[in-house]
Amino acid sequence: METYPTWPNLAAMMFARARLWPKQPMLRVFRGGTWQSIAWDQFDRLTASLARALRAAGVSAGDRVVICADNRPEYPIAEVALMAIRAVPVPVYTTNTVDDHAHILRDCGARAAIVGAKGMAERFRQAGERASGLDLLIDMDTPEWARMTADKAPPDDIAAEATLIPPGALACLIYTSGTGGAPKGVMLPHRCILSNCVGAFDLVRPLTLRTETYLSYLPLSHSYEHTVGQFFLLSIGTEIVYARGVEHLAADMLTVRPTILTAVPRVLEVIRTRVLTQVERQSPFKRRLFDRALGIGLKRIDRAPLSLIERVLDPILDRLVRAKVRARFGGRLVAAMSGGARLEPDVGRFFLALGIPIMQGYGQTEAGPVISANPPHAIRIETVGPPLVGVDLRLAEDGEILVRGDLVMDGYWGRPEDTAAAIVDGWLHTGDIGVLDPDGYLRITDRKKDMIVLSGGDNVSPAKVEGVLMAEPEIAQAVVAGDGRAGLSALLVPAEGFDDVGVAVAVSRANHRLSVTERVRKHAVVEPFTVENGLLTPTQKIRRLMVARTHEEVLRRLHG
After folding, report:
1. Which end of the chain is more exposed for a tag (fewer CB within 10 A), N or C?
2. Does residue 365 sit in helix, strand or coil?
3. Last residue of one domain, picked from the residues 416, 447, 478
4. What is the mean predicted confidence (pLDDT) over 489-518?
5. What DSSP element (H or E) covers 197?
């Protein structure tokens, strides 16, 4: 594919691809003890059938319809069917509480929902009672779904209708998971997501693309997985394989052997810790081999010249050491995109040195969501790369990152004041602080609103300090606080197998890598931050504000 095709909207794109690749594998899922595949021609028939059935059930153009399901083939089928009849899908997290679902139903006025996860139908019945009611509730695991997707008629009528939807029409409404406050509905038109697809295609074009395989494990309700892990990758013919769950991710990577992967920083940190722990258990000779392989890899990243002996050893160490680490990812990985949170540079360098191609990117739901990313053959892991093609980016006087282009949202659903504050003269104010290097690579330094100002007037980036702390193998999670105080305190969660003493040693080690004002003066070990206790978003971002509120008394004692 030399150039990326153009389509008026996402539904038209999907039907066009089905006509081009009717028998090509499209979606794969583990069911009944085996991996089952769906081809493109099955997808467009099922989608057209569901579109007709939804319309017959009373779903009209402009209606908001919530989708809440695990990652599975029925998800894109439901979403594209809704888009094709101009309804507005509202993807939401399966980890939401009943109150969360009720808030979204009320906020966007949805009176219909499509669900596909254990116990989800009952949860939505309760949410509907707390909101304004539900006129239609469809469960993907019932005979009703089978009936609605049973029409064997060709998809031509629905596909033809879809081509008439303009690029500026509302494609979907995605609620920001947020690290604090009630989620807001981000209005993403078709042009916004298609703009991201064009930019992503330009980014990966230097790769030797063949029949790619992508392992999908991030929730499809997350804007990145929704745009890139679903629409973009499908548009270039990638087969999407739905992981059996995060708990099976390591095994699924070995079985599926993906060529493309999304790797959120937390997953990379866990794998790095496990690799290092395993290395520590090896013989002194094998530990030296690993250290040598890592050291030569780091020199290559830094473009430092290798000695004659290093050039001789490099291919041998690649087979003996690096290949074993690559095998943890299935051994076929061409590209792994890291995003969703800040990747500590040392973690990224670790994997790059071992031959794992980590491309860090940056974005937010309000921008489709991808704003910038590292190109595969020119990675600067300490940055989030240059802006994608079609993205205008500049920095405000205070360093805030401003973005303009087709990727920018239409606004927040029902929140004109918030929209006016976020988009000024066409520029999206991201709320992130950054710097641009001479080559146009962007580096994120902090969130504008999260900066800690110490009592002495020093500004400290909590993201940086937390990243340094979590790069230590003994520390799994970290939140620092200290606004208006003389110094920083930290709430820390030990990594598996480590205790309070190990954490204390790690803090001391991390402090040597921080400036005087950034150093952690006091810390407390606390229980893990999880989605279940409300201290972690579904995409593994720590809700710093909620953590501080929950541990208010602990922080008070630390600040003393």
Report:
1. C
2. helix
3. 447
4. 91
5. helix 190-204
